[in-house]
Amino acid sequence: MAIIQYLEMDYASSELKSLYRWIRRRLLIRRETVLSESRPYVREDNYSPKHIVKLLTQKNCNGKAFFHFRNMNDYISLSSSGQLNVKGGEGGLFKPWGNSEFKYLRPKTVIQELENEIIAVNFIAASDGRCYSFDSYKEFINWLSVK
Question: Do 20 and 66 fall within a single domain?
Answer without folding.
Answer: no
